[in-house]
Every structure is written in structure tokens, then in C-alpha cells.
Amino acid sequence: MVTAFVEMERSIIELGNKQDKTTTIGKTRIVTKDCNGNPTSQKTLVDELPPLVSALKSSAQQNAASFHFPGHNRGRAAPSSLSHLIGKGPFLHDLPELPELDNLFSPAGPILDAQKQVAKLFGASETWFLVGGTTCGIQAAVMATCSPGHYLILPRNSDISAISAMVLSGALPKYIIPEYDFEWNIAGGSLHPSIRLLLWQVDKAIQELEKEGQKPAAVFVTSLTYHGVSINLTKISKLCHLRRIPLIVDEAHGAHLGFHPRLPYPALHQGADIAVQSTHKVLCSLTQSSMLHMLGNIVDRERICRCLQTLQSTSPSYLLLASFDAARAQLSANSGTVFNQALELAVETKNTINEIPGISVLDFPSFSNFPAIDPLRLSIGVWLLGLSGFEADEILCRDYGVVPELIGIRSITLAVTLGTCRKHIQRLVSGLRNLSATNFLPAIHQGEKGDDMEYAVPFNNDNNSGSIRLSPREAFFARKRKLRRCKGAVISGAADPLLSSIVICSTG
Fold first, then answer.
1. Angstrom distance (rounded) from CA 452 to CA 182
2. Which residues make Cβ contacts (< 8 Å) with residue 392, sequence separation at least 6?
3. Which pLDDT tens digit goes with each residue over 399-416?
């Protein structure tokens, strides 16, 4: 597999190079290289640098007497320990909100141009850049739709950012309980019934609130999940829109959706009113950069702006902002084919791993022509080897230098991106084959091997897990005491951020 990058004059990602004295922007040439840095192919020429990248480049090239922050003064006082590691380039381009660089909270120049180009590419009415990650976007989305005492319908395994959003907004949760797959130890594992189940649960939650004289302020769902499971949102969005209820989608793991027919459909294309995406996950912007997309007019855009102004830094990083622009340009250059090679490699890898004895790959058959799972996300089950995901991760990391994205009790999850290469895939496959050869014993009953661990049940309808005693805001500010965990018990989802809002404790 190849890794795509952009060679540009005085680029913000060329670290440590001498400053370019010319002011000509010129053309940008996109080249692909393999893991060893060898060029393999050339892509379409782009006429000019993206607007925000261009503005940052021009500003950094000025022979300015700088009496402004940050204190390193365009790299002149950059800490040597870090500048020796990454070069002076990042410091040179680490600039504040200068007039020529626009203002994130009231954009009228290159930031506005960059956001408009992103909105057009992703099919949004409007897009906002987030320098506080998807957490900031989810908090803003909930605060923009829910006032204190209003109800938010959401699955019980939603990301902790949705919980913190209710703490900030004063919203009350109306929980729906997700289906749980105990074989994989993940929520929403068995997709066929869960598509219908989630729609039915949302409808039931709306009706229950209406019987109490309440109307939900918003519905919040997650698609894709951390494991790449996609939800068919079309019917849910129609159900919500019949009652003028906004649908908010945590699409942190789905910024790449819609850019290849083999990928699940993006939330905006299925009628979501707000979709929040982590641009840095599968796309190639810098870590912590995310986007909030809005479609339609159900949600008040001015309220979104006010919430973002409350939550975001008044000193945003222009390195992060420029990386949005660069990632959009990279995607735009070949939007229909940019993921071809990554998908081919992911499918080939999955087929190879499926042939290894004792190892499983999470997958679902197609459902009504709806792509059910992101093929770029590989969740690999190791329980038939008598190993936990943590043990498998330790061996793969120690012996093969393989580092997964997520570690679970019974599996590990890996992300295939534009930067994934065949050489690294070969190391992964070699490691898994060694795990199988060392630990797989066909003579042992496979249904029992590795099943001797004790699991706590994270979602239990019998215990009425959808009810609450305190609102998230009340619970956040309440006095607390720590309880001991039962000896030998395993807290399900301890390494899974999607389950991080669940607290299971015991006095035993």
C-alpha cells in the first residue's frame, strides 16, 4: 500500500527545511510513495495551494518584526529539544490570528473559503472547523439543540462526550439500550436485528416522552462505531423529521464515508441534521482536528456558532486549521478513487486473516444493499486461541512491532488508512499466524476455549438500565466515593471509549 502526501513549496509539513524566499505559490504535485519512500505513481495536478494553506505560507514568509504571541517568535526561540526533533517549520507556521489569516469565530477570508469548500465536498449546508476534536463538536451540537431540562434520546453506550454535553447543557437523557454481542464483547455486534431495533427504540422513546407531555429536543446516535459498524439512518431521520426533531450523528470514525461506493453511506446523505467527524482519524489532517457539518434548517446555526465560541479556544492553532484545508485538497484531487488501494489492501488482508485457524474477523453480510461495516476497520477476534485482546496485543507489539487502534477483551481492532502499506500488513499477518500456530488447539472444544473469564454485564434491560436516578449534571457535581471491584471481575469495555460512560462497581 502507498502513502499519499503533498510536495509543496514551503509546505507546513516540510519540517526543518530552509525558508523559501520566493512568493510564487506555483503548482502542487501529488505523489505517492511506499513504506520505503520510493515514488510509485503521480496523481492529478492541483492548480494552486488551498486557500488557508496559501495564506499561512504567505504570512510565514513575511520579513516581519514580530511583537506578538506565541513566545517562540516564529521559531526564533523554539525549544531546542523539540526543534531538533521536528525542525523549525512547525514553529515558523505556528502563528496567531493575524488579519491575513482570518478569525475562526467570525471568518470572512481564507478560513471561510476553506470551510465553504469542505461543505461543498461533504454535502453540508455549512461546515465549522473544530480545533477541540469531535468532543467539542458533540458538545456544541447538544448544547445548540438542548436547553436545561430538555430530553436527549441516545444509546446508553454513547461516547463520553455526549455525557459531558448533557452536563454542560443541563439536558436529561432518555436512554435506549443497545444490543450487546457477547461473543465479540461489543455493543451493536449483531447488526441485522439492531438496525430495526434501534429504529423501534427511538420511536418508542419518542412516544414515551410524548405521553409524559415532553418532546425530545434531539436524537443522538453513533455511526460508525469504533469497530466500524454502520447504522441505516434513513428511516431514523425520517421519523425524527416528521416531528421536527433534529438528528445528531457522532460520525467521528466516518469522515471518509461517501468517497467510495464500497464504503457505508455518510450520515448527511441519510438525512442527519448534524454530523460531527474526526478529520484526523482516517483522513490526513493533524490530530485533534474535527469538523461539524450541518444540513437543512432544523437547527439554529447562530446557536451553533455561539456554542462553538463558548467551547473553542480563542487562540486556535493555524497548523490544525491549515491541515483541514490540505486534507480537503488531498481528498478533492481524486475524491472517487483516493481510497481504491486502501480498500483493496484491507479486503485482501481480511481474506488472508480469515484463513488463519482460530482467528475471526468481524463482518456482516449485506443488508438491503446497505453496506453494514467499514471495510477499512479490521476487528480481529482471538478468543479461540485462549488469548485476550490484551495478551494478543502485547505479543504483536513486542515481537512484530504491530500497534492496533483499539484493544478489547476478546479482540483487537486495526485501522487501514491511506498511509497503510503492504510491508506492515505482512508483519501483521505473520504475527497472527504465529499466534495461531502457538495457541490454536483444534482438539479442544472451540466454544469453550478462552471462555473462562468473568464478565460484567454492561447493559441489562432486566435491571432497567435505561432509567436514571440523577441527571448527568447532578451526578457530575455530586459527592462520590470509590468502591472496590470484585476480585477477578472484568469490566467490559474498559479499553473502549464508547463504553467509557458506564460505571460498574461492587462492594464485594
1. 13
2. 380, 382, 385, 412, 435
3. 999 999 999 999 999 999
Would you state the torsion angle of the CA atoms of residues 124, 128, 133, 134, taken in this order, to the nearest 10 degrees?
A: -40
Task: Give the domains, in start order, of the chain with CATH numbers.
Answer: 110-334 (3.40.640.10), 339-439 (3.90.1150.10)
186-187/290-294 β-pairing: unpaired
**Among the listed ranges 69-83, 178-192, 286-300, 464-478, which one has the minimum average pLDDT value?**
178-192
User: Helix 318-333 crosses helix 110-122 at what angle (to 10 degrees)?
Assistant: 40
The model's pTM is 0.83
Least Cα distance to 291 among 261, 315, 325, 264 occurs for 325
Q: Where are the alpha helices (DSSP H) in 407-485?
A: 422-439, 472-477
Q: What is the dihedral of CA 81, 83, 86, 92, to 10 degrees?
A: 160
Average pLDDT over residues 30-53: 58
HEC readout, 168-223? HHCCEEEEECCCEECCCCEECCCHHHHHHHHHHHHHHHHHHHHHCCCCCCEEEEEC
C-alpha cell at 402: 504491530
3-state class (DSSP) for residue 413:
strand
